[in-house]
Amino acid sequence: MPIDRDFLLNWVMDPVVESYTDREPLFYALSLGLGADPLDAGQLRFVYEKGLSAFPTMPVVMCQPTGWAVDPRAGLNYRMMLHGEQGLVVHRPLPVSGRLRGDTRVVEVIDKGEGRGALLYLERQITDAASGVLYATVKGTVFARADGGFGGPSGPSRDVHAIPAGEPDAVIDMPTLPQSALLYRLNGDRNPIHADPEAAQSAKFPQPILHGMCTYGVAAHAILKQFCNYDPVALRELDVRFSAPMFPGETVSVALWKRGAIVSFRARIKSRDATVLDNGRAVLAG
């Protein structure tokens, strides 16, 4: 069954309403590796309830829709789908506890052609469930590898952010724990390829892989550490492409180029000569 583009673009998904306490922001930050230095006051503000702030990328794990990819009306081969890109616009910081609503929609479907797959652009608005105040816009691109050639438009595709020429202004090495994926999956993504060696091997990985969204948060940590003195309101936007898997326990080197309020970044695993995040773009306050 081919993709039904008209259905996807007009699909009104059920909103996801979620209540949370300070436990969720504490755990989210810990799952990214914050708190590794217990004497660092900057990190402590995200992992200790005294003066607690939610880490700025936390909206990406809140009010996530479930089951949409397996709905037969969509016509997607969900087993062949990959997370290609991730974006976030922070309109105002999340409170450390509250009740949120997430409204997700498919904003475009691009047909790359028979045998080349399709791109689905999704957008999720995170608002206060009672007042409707907008906290964040979460953007994502899904690469449906097996679903090209359905007769849809071939563009326009989203622009790719270009990394500046020359040496980076800084390179920050960010270690992860061997159990990082086991921790991060408790934020909501319990895909077994992040925990079960057999499931990972069936997906052609030698071992369970780290969530791309965890690597995304680790890169945000590097940016806040290097340029923002861990200011929780400094990060306004964060966009990136996922280019290769990362394994729990690896150290990721985040290269950073700062041009005014724009930070470009790329993340690599030096030991494997592998780029895991590319074309990264962050916008800082002020």
TrEMBL record:
It comes from the Bacteria. Residues 19-145 form the Peroxisomal multifunctional enzyme type 2-like N-terminal domain. Residues 164-267 form the MaoC-like domain. GO terms for molecular function: (3S)-3-hydroxyacyl-CoA dehydrogenase (NAD+) activity; 17-beta-hydroxysteroid dehydrogenase (NAD+) activity; enoyl-CoA hydratase activity. Pfam families: MaoC_dehydratas, MFE-2_hydrat-2_N. One of its GO terms (biological process) is fatty acid beta-oxidation. This is Predicted MaoC-like (R)-specific enoyl-CoA hydratase.
